[in-house]
Amino acid sequence: MLIFDMDGTLIDSNGIWRTVDERFLARRGIPYTQAYYEGVAHTAFSKAAIFTKEFCRLSESTDEIKAEWLELAGDMYATSVPVKPDVVPFLEKCRAAGERMIVLTSSVPVHCRTALTHLGLLPYFEQVLISEELDLDKREPEIFHRAAEIMGVKEYNCTVFDDSIASCRAAKAAGMRVVGVFDEFFHGAWEDMQAVCDRTIRGFGDLL
Fold it and tell me: Which pLDDT score, from 0 to 100, does residue 177 have?
């Protein structure tokens, strides 16, 4: 079973959330910092809102925070997010080889399904699992155990493709093989990624 992250792995969308975060914080006169990034990146939508409310000491409810994020993100997932290079040829290769494939993402559910459908990626995947809907976090091994359970496979028969060092660590702890995928927005963690993962790639062209 091949398990793919979406944002920053299959599609080039990490920049959207960096922009959303910066605009959201700027409206409140709060600087965008590494500490804030580490608290929200690759985190389930509701949990990111809880963190933001507490970290920034905001009076808004978590529902109001999420609504503002959605407003700031607008329809970019349907209009301006591209597939990352060589993703489609790699998925074609895997499908031709009979590989089972799913998506496991911490993306906003509506954005996830919009992007995968709009970009023509949805037919490649047997299932789309979203951390928000599972009420689990991709920083924890439990979500990877749960994904294996849902799909009826053993963890040691799974390979995870992800651009997040935290998610890669969690997948490894769950007993899965892990391929770290480079993304420019998180280049600072590349050395750690190379140490943690079974393999790292600059892009899916490396696997063709």
Answer: 98
Distance from chain centroid for Cα 109:
11
In contact, 108 and 115? CB cutoff 8 Å: no
Determine the Cα–Cα distance for residues 4 and 1; give it in Å rounded to an integer. 10
153, two tokens: 């496979």
DSSP, collapsed to helix, strand or coil, labels residue 189 as helix
CA distances from 160 to 49, 138, 197, 203, 206 (A): 26, 12, 10, 14, 16
The pLDDT tens digits of the residues spanning 172-186 come to 999 999 999 998 877
- Quick check: helix, strand or coil at residue 113? helix
Name which residue leads in pLDDT, 142 or 14: 142
In angstroms, rounded to a whole number, what is the distance separating the alpha carbons of residues 126 and 175?
21
Question: For the chain, how far is it from start to end, CA to CA, in angstroms?
Answer: 18
- Give SS3 for 195: helix
